[in-house]
Amino acid sequence: MEGPTLFQILFFLIVAVSGIVILTVKYKIHAFFALMIACLIVGFGVRFDLISILNTMKEGFGSIMKSLALVIILGTTLGMLMEESGSTDTITSFILSKVGRKHTSLAMSLAGFVVGLPIFCDSGFIVLSGLNHSLVKRTGIPMKQLAVSLATGLYAVHCLVPPHPGATAASSIIGADLGKLIMWGIIVAIPAMLAANLWAAYNSRTDKEAVPVPELPACPSFRNVFFAFLPLFIPILLITLKSFLSAYLNSLFGNILNALGDPVAALGTGVLIVLITTGKTIKSRIPNVLSEAAEKAGGILVIIGSGGAFGAILARTHLGELSSQALPIGSMGILFPFLITSMLKTAQGSSTVAIITASSLVMPLLQPLGLASSNGRLLCVLSMGAGSMMISHANDAYFWVIAKFSGLNMKTMLRMYSCATILMGVLSLLMVYLLSFFLVK
Known about the structure:
The chain is mainly α. It has helices spanning 6-26, 31-45, 50-85, 87-99, 104-115, 121-139, 143-160, 165-174, 178-203, 222-245, 252-260, 263-278, 286-316, 319-326, 335-348, 351-362, 366-369, 374-387, 397-406, 410-438. Helix 3 (50-85) crosses helix 8 (165-174) and helix 10 packs across helix 11. The longest helix is centred in the first third of the chain and has 36 residues, at 50-85. The relative contact order is 0.14. Mean pLDDT is 85; it is low at 209-214.
């Protein structure tokens, strides 16, 4: 039987993606079921038989679970243990005490950025929102400025840096090196965070009120700060060292680094560090935290798995080969994954769903886009991370977390926060373009 034409594949792909958006946004269907339906639409549309479709879906689902399940579970566990043990509060107090009263807004951006490395942005904002309210009273800085500063600091790393589920899943689907993605993701996220902070300050410059003697939290003791940061930076250090040094080390030390630098081992080490250093203070709550972490990770994993299934269906259509022959996409490079992800994000709201779906769409097109090399794949994932920032508005759950916990109205949120996410996305894309000159594809 003659294979499907490019027109057929693109037509049913557009129908499938439109279906994902309509089902998740209008009918509030869980992304897992929306992606499963999308698999069937594309599969039947290009005339695959049911058995082939189901087998391909199972292979795609199982393949991505094999590489990501433990990483997501342990990453979620690490973040929740740090939150429960008070490590996140200690880190925030330390940053606030060091940056100073005049730069409270910047301190909240930095706190969000650092705390957001292991913790999902919505959870991080809820945890730190109480501190935000306290600082508004003590410094006279408008809530909208501190709220947007904190929210965008968390958001920058959530979209770009593993072990957050979107970036982690994209690295697996596209085949980018996880350690290098962590390092370059942090580098790309820093300018985005700073730009959003300046945007928040600029839009709030006429609202400041004088407060006689503003005070900030006292600097925690060195011991508390050290143990608060330790479970955060040790896993990042191990994964990054493996990515950059393991190829040059053939000794026993190299073998040990290879083992400990595996994302599962590194995140497991972080979890053990939290339990060892703070386990006594949260001993009675550890079972509940572990149960909640497993349940939360499960909800993320079913979305990631369904994204892998959708990607496997698309790969089987040979979309990449047909597109390279018929469409002039080669000149678009990293702009193409950015545009695809930003359209999906803006349409359906979830950064995680957007980048996972986009990864499945872009993966067969890596060769014609000129992104099939190791560094090309890395740039592709970073570009999709930038696209997953654009545009956070009323269909994004995080948008409402910020609004409700900060008491901000819709007009303020759209002007301050939504515009900030556009600025962050565009600036992050420019950063990826700059990196492309240094990272030979």
